[in-house]
């Protein structure tokens, strides 16, 4: 057995990464790391009686990506392994969900891998992340000013939990993620490929490291190793390893505290106040974070100041004192409880949890948080009210003859313009919302109805567009209605 | 009240840094940070009824250091404060204790500050470390590959515990250390001095930051802020703040586990095995570290691999299995205990805990770990044994007529040479110890008797020098004897 195969075998044993008879999806880009991983696991498969499934996602980001997919197919065939390949337009996905290319690629990739795992009844996905990737990850988090959970880097075995992409759909059942090469330097991988006569393609994942991460890899890390710490990559991988142990210890304490104290109600989470305040601040901070992510699974980033301020109110505030939190949430200090719930102002407005919904079926009802939206297209003569005399801000009557279907809902974007009914022409949407005294807290997630050309037809709860207003000549009406559940 | 004074007051209140009526030693180099600290605390003193004592250590490292001391004296006099100044030759101290200049300066400075605190009945020492110092500290630890305790940086209030400088003397009673400017960026200090018309001297502490830290401050941090993260200093100070909370949480758990499980015996520490193995690895690792530092208070650095290997033996080893640890210690897996104790090989040899002892009184007995060393100078005719027929390796009879007194004990240094009795001339000491089969583990701390010119007279337990061997003409004998207690 090759020396690296032996080393990886020991890592898998020591950290209990794979179990007897497990079905493993191996993520193979065709680049050096994943190619080595596949060959190593193939060599070791009999030891644990593993069944390997090769999965390759073509991100459609480079001209040669189809060739890479073909290459991975051939490798899998040579090894006699089942291979699932898929092509997805990551650029379009990034645009639709307003993500960076790197974020979009990661989301699409892990969704694909999780799908393959479920379809093949695999319980674990193996990726080729190396000690060098780990060092880069730790350095990246360090420069961002991350805390323990960032500085611990990637874990050798962790749970892959994908947030639901559509609101109100349950999260998919979890799959585990293992990284058997996490303690192996990239140069050892290269030497292994050389010894085995294996020729990888250029690693497609390089694109997703994009500008920032590529600069860390190719400029900053070499500079730091040359000038300050020759062993930096090794040291950072080790830092990650020790911090992961500390993180796990704290996480276990948080889990225990959560199970003992958190009471989950519809739309809010409470903690008994005395017991909460008796906890160490390291746990208090994490319980508040977990409450936020439980109430708002799609929340991306929680600022440090928000939590600090909320904890100050929880500790020192009078009964009734409250602190705003991200995700339109707030913490309220009640007599004998700490409550985290929706900001009441926000409850008065429907809010989109995603920047853009799929095209709307125009004879259907949709759920948007605590609200429903009903759309129907009807002949004008079937209408039993006058479309000109609507006084309900949560209803709109639009001229279906002039609308380019399909319509969608989206949130506002920088530079949005809009022609409000009753005004002579286009205005800046941001200025308009201010003039209409729409609460600051709800503007970012306020639903905007747009047509197929992304023109704004209706600013929900505020005003319809003059371009879609019903006219004398209108024969068909698009009727929309938001209702609080 | 000035804005910065107000900010610092809030920091002191929020973190409970100073208590009502406390006596505070303010460490003042005369540089910007400490000068600002002194003025701010002087303004705030009535709020907590503080008594301030100014302490200045002249490290004798720069030509202008006497002027700085005079400057600090004048400032203290202007404010009507008691001022203690002392001059110490840090370079000589560094050489005597084989420390880097930075380490030596820190040791000498904190010893001085602790002395002043005890002499003036102060319970706390205030230093002028800023958020910039904190960022540099965190960055420095990051590049070294530190874990949580390094990455947390400096604490706003911590206990100052000085290790005893002489073996077997008890550690001094602890004093607290506070850093009220730890969240204040250096530029805010500069603006404050400007507003107040205060003119500091160039900060003397810059020397002790020496080459490495100065490069971090003047080259690396600016580069990282320019190219990668404009807010890096702020981010790192915040990282330190959150990690300090996590560190404190783990520390409390370690304290509890230590009190419950650690049994301290003469020369060893045991843990009940089942209870120890039931602990989270984050605690196991720290209990082993604490055992090491309890048995060896002067230990400097404990390698990660040592602890990992020891924990592996503790967890998976058979009864009787053992792992070496630094400080000539070992961990042994006993039937129902984990024991940490001196390596038995090492117990057979006296070991110096310091690189160099003070000059030895030649008619006295000294304690060296578990051993005593007795010296006496006697006329040859008073000797009741023949100096030529000594067969006890732990005794030496030397020609006092040829020795340049005073003599000392020290440990070996790179390049040491020595003329062993019975050999034609000088040999390399390292080669000689190997040839004589002195166990590797004891060589670094083996006592060497040297004369006033640092010439080796006796390699304890191995051989005397031909240059000090008793001759026919010898009239006075220096007799030395090591005895295991």
UniProtKB/TrEMBL annotation, chains A, B:
Q: Which Pfam families match?
A: ATP_bind_3, TilS, TilS_C
Report the CDD domains cross-referenced here: TilS_N
Say yes or no: keyword Calcium present.
Answer: no
Annotated Gene Ontology cellular components are: cytoplasm
E.C. number: 6.3.4.19
Residues that bind ATP, according to the entry? Answer: 29-34
Subcellular location(s): the record lists:
Cytoplasm
Instruction: Provide the reaction this enzyme catalyses.
Output: cytidine(34) in tRNA(Ile2) + L-lysine + ATP = lysidine(34) in tRNA(Ile2) + AMP + diphosphate + H(+)
Q: Which SUPFAM superfamilies match?
A: Adenine nucleotide alpha hydrolases-like, MesJ substrate recognition domain-like, PheT/TilS domain
Which domain of life does the protein's organism represent? Bacteria
Q: Which Gene3D superfamilies match?
A: 1.20.59.20, HUPs
Its signal peptide is none
Q: What Gene Ontology terms describe what this protein does at the molecular function level?
A: ATP binding; tRNA(Ile)-lysidine synthase activity
HAMAP family found in the cross-reference section: tRNA_Ile_lys_synt
Q: Which family does it belong to?
A: Belongs to the tRNA(Ile)-lysidine synthase family.
Q: What does this protein do?
A: Ligates lysine onto the cytidine present at position 34 of the AUA codon-specific tRNA(Ile) that contains the anticodon CAU, in an ATP-dependent manner. Cytidine is converted to lysidine, thus changing the amino acid specificity of the tRNA from methionine to isoleucine.
Q: What is known of its domains?
A: The N-terminal region contains the highly conserved SGGXDS motif, predicted to be a P-loop motif involved in ATP binding.
Name by which UniProt lists this protein? tRNA(Ile)-lysidine synthase
Gene that this polypeptide is encoded by: tilS
């Amino acid at each position: 057995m090759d020396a690296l195969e032996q080393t990886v075998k020991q890592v898998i044993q020591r950290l209990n990464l794979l179990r007897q008879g497990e079905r493993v999806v191996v993520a193979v880009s065709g680049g050096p790391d994943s190619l080595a991983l596949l060959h190593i696991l193939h060599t070791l498969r009999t030891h644990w009686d593993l069944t390997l499934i090769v999965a390759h996602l073509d991100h459609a980001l480079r001209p040669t990506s189809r060739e890479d997919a073909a290459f991975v197919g051939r490798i899998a065939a040579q090894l006699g392994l089942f291979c699932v390949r898929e092509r997805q337009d990551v650029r379009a996905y990034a645009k639709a969900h307003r993500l960076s290319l790197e974020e979009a690629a990661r989301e699409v990739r892990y969704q694909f891998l999780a799908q393959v795992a479920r379809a093949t009844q695999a319980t674990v996905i193996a990726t080729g992340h190396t000690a060098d990737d780990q060092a880069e990850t730790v350095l990246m988090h360090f420069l961002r000013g991350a805390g323990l959970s960032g500085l611990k880097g990637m874990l050798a075995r962790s749970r892959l939990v994908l947030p639901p992409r559509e609101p109100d759909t349950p999260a998919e059942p979890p799959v585990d993620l293992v990284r058997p090469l996490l303690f192996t330097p990239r140069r050892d991988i290269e030497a292994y490929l050389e010894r085995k006569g294996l020729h990888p393609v250029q690693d497609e994942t390089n694109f997703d490291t994009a500008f920032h991460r590529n600069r860390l890899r190719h400029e900053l890390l070499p500079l730091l190793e040359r000038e300050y710490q020759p062993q930096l990559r090794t040291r950072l991988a080790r830092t990650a390893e020790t911090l992961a142990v500390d993180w796990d210890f704290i996480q276990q304490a948080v889990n225990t505290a959560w199970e003992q104290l958190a009471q989950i109600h519809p739309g809010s989470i409470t903690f008994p106040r005395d017991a909460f305040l008796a906890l160490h601040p390291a746990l208090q901070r994490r319980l508040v974070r977990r409450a936020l992510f439980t109430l708002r699974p799609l929340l991306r980033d929680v600022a440090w100041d928000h939590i600090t301020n909320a904890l100050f109110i929880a500790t020192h505030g009078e009964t009734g004192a409250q602190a705003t939190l991200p995700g339109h949430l707030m913490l309220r200090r009640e007599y004998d409880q700490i409550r985290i719930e929706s900001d009441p102002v926000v409850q008065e407005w429907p809010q989109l949890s995603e920047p853009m919904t799929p095209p709307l079926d125009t004879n259907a009802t949709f759920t948007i948080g605590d609200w429903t939206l009903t759309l129907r297209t009807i002949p004008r003569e079937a209408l039993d009210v006058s479309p000109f005399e609507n006084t309900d801000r949560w209803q709109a009557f639009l001229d279906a003859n002039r609308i380019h279907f399909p319509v969608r809902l989206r949130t506002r974007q920088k530079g949005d313009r809009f022609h409000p009914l009753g005004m002579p022409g286009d205005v800046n949407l941001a200025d308009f919302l201010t003039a209409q005294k729409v609460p600051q807290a709800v503007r970012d997630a306020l639903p905007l109805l747009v047509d197929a050309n992304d023109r704004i037809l209706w600013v929900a709860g505020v005003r319809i567009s003059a371009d879609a207003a019903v006219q004398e000549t209108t024969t068909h009406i698009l009727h929309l209605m938001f209702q609080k559940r």
